[in-house]
Amino acid sequence: MYDSQTVALAAKRQAEAFPLARSSTATESPEVFTPYEPRTLEETGLTQVNVEGLILKYLQSTGNATGRAISEQIRLPFAIVREILHALKKEMLVAHKNEAGMSDYEHQLTPSGYDRVKHHTDRCTYFGSAPVPIEEYFPSVAKQSIRNSKPRIDTLCKAFSDLVVPLSIISHTS
């Protein structure tokens, strides 16, 4: 819809009007927020009982699963999940069904595990991603906000290219 000369002229005007606006490389490939990956259970801010509940409820839902599949489901590093699975096996709440390779096993609930998971599901049936402590949640949301982002005119022109919108209106939104 807009020829490259028009876009270039609008981008030049924007740069003159807003000299502190981000460069095109900063806007086209913004810094991606990556959460910190905990190395220990303590660094997660969760208790072993919290993670145990997520693991047991997932196993109840799936019947059996490898440690890596459980790790993926609850979004915690395999090393942390493996330690808790080892403790659950010692307590005879889970058993190894098969070897899965790479220091992993296919796990299943034992009768005692089914009894324990009932306690967890009576409190809460959720078994997705492990929760993040609230003190970490709010700063992570703030880091991902687009509130301070300043889109460039050429990026906006591409976004609105399939609409009939005057360039003057697009330049006001940037």
Commentary on this structure:
This protein has 10 helices and 3 strands; from the N terminus they run H-H-H-H-E-H-H-E-E-H-H-H-H. It folds into 2 domains: 52 residues, no CATH class; 89 residues, Arc Repressor Mutant, subunit A, CATH 1.10.10.10. Helix 4 packs across helix 7. The protein has 174 residues and is mainly α. A 3-stranded antiparallel sheet has the order 1-3-2. It is 55% helix and 8% strand. About 7% of the residues have low confidence.
Return Rg in Å.
Answer: 25 Å
Average pLDDT score: 84
Which word captures the global form? elongated
CATH superfamily of the largest domain: Winged helix-like DNA-binding domain superfamily/Winged helix DNA-binding domain
Strand residue percentage: 5-15%
Number of strands: 3
Which strand order does the major sheet show? 1-3-2
Query: So, CATH architecture of the largest domain?
Result: Orthogonal Bundle
Largest sheet: 3 strands, antiparallel
Spans where pLDDT lies below 50 across 5 or more residues: 17-29
Helix content: 55-70%
Q: What is the domain tally?
A: 2
* Computed structural class: mainly alpha
**CATH first level of the largest domain: which class?**
Mainly Alpha
